C-alpha cells in the first residue's frame, strides 16, 4: 500500500494517511441495562476536513469481537444516555469530556440479532490525542466523511435471512449496526456540521 507522510499528533500516537483517504492509528499501552446502549459518532477535523472516528473492537471481547464500531457501550442504571456515550468514549479511546461537544442526538437503531437499542450522539472532538484501552479496542480509524457520500452502501443478507448494510473500502469494511447508523444519519450529520461551521 502506498503511504503518504506521517503526521505526529502526540508522543505516543501516530497517523498514516493512505492513498485511500482513511487514517489508521495504532497505540500500544498496557449495574448495566443490557438492552440499552449509547455510542458516540465522533467527528474530528484533520487538514480542515471532517473525519469520522471508528474503533476495531478487541478480538477478546464476547460481543462483536474484531468488528469496526463507534465508541460506546451499555448504559448503566445511574446514568443518562449521553453520559454513557461520553463515558465509553473516554474509557475506550481516552478522550476527555472537556474535549467533546455533543452536537445532536441521532436516530436510534436496534441491532438485528441481539435486539439492543442503540442511541447515537454526534460528537465534535477538539483534541488530537488518543489513548486506546487495549482490553476493549485494538485500533482506531479516521475515515473521511466525504467517502460515505461517494460510496454506495451494500445490502448484506445474513444467514438467518435478515438484511443489514455494509460500506466497503480498500482494507476496511464497516457493516451492521455501525453502517446503519451512518446510512440513517448521514444527511443529518452533514447538515449539522454545516451549521456549526457557520457559527
Largest sheet: 11 strands, mixed
SS strand fraction: 35-45%
DSSP summary: helix tally: 3
Categorize the overall geometry: globular
Poorly predicted spans: 1-22, 24-30
Overall mean pLDDT: 82
How far do the termini sit from each other? Answer: 39 Å
Record field, number of beta strands? 14
Secondary-structure-derived class? alpha+beta
Can you describe this structure?
The chain is of the alpha+beta class and 199 residues long. 21% of the residues lie in helices and 45% in strands. The protein has 3 helices and 14 strands. The N and C termini lie far apart (39 Å).
Detail the topology: elements first, then pairings.
Elements: E1 3-10, E2 13-18, E3 22-25, E4 32-46, E5 49-57, E6 68-69, E7 72-76, H1 81-93, E8 100-105, E9 109-110, E10 117-125, E11 137-144, H2 145-150, E12 154-157, E13 163-169, E14 172-175, H3 176-197
Parallel strand pairs: 4-10
Antiparallel strand pairs: 1-2, 2-3, 3-11, 4-5, 4-7, 5-6, 5-11, 8-10, 9-10, 12-13, 13-14
Amino acid at each position: 500500500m502506498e503511504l503518504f507522510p506521517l503526521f505526529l499528533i502526540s508522543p505516543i500516537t501516530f497517523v498514516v494517511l493512505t492513498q485511500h483517504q482513511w487514517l489508521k492509528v495504532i497505540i500500544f499501552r498496557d449495574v448495566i441495562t443490557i438492552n440499552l446502549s449509547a455510542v458516540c459518532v465522533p467527528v474530528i477535523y484533520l487538514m480542515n476536513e471532517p473525519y469520522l472516528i471508528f474503533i476495531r473492537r478487541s478480538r477478546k471481547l464476547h460481543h462483536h469481537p474484531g468488528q469496526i464500531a463507534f465508541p460506546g457501550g451499555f448504559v448503566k442504571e445511574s446514568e443518562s444516555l449521553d453520559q454513557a456515550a461520553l463515558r465509553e468514549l473516554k474509557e475506550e479511546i481516552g478522550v476527555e469530556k472537556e474535549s467533546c461537544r455533543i452536537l445532536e442526538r441521532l436516530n436510534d437503531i436496534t441491532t438485528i440479532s441481539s435486539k439492543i437499542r442503540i442511541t447515537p450522539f454526534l460528537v465534535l472532538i477538539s483534541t488530537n490525542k488518543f489513548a486506546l484501552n487495549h482490553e476493549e479496542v485494538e485500533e482506531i480509524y479516521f475515515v473521511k466523511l466525504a467517502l460515505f457520500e461517494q460510496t454506495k452502501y451494500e445490502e448484506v443478507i445474513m444467514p438467518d435471512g435478515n438484511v443489514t448494510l455494509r460500506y466497503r473500502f480498500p482494507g476496511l469494511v464497516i457493516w451492521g449496526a455501525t453502517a446503519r447508523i451512518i446510512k440513517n444519519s448521514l444527511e443529518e450529520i452533514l447538515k449539522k456540521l454545516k451549521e456549526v461551521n457557520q457559527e
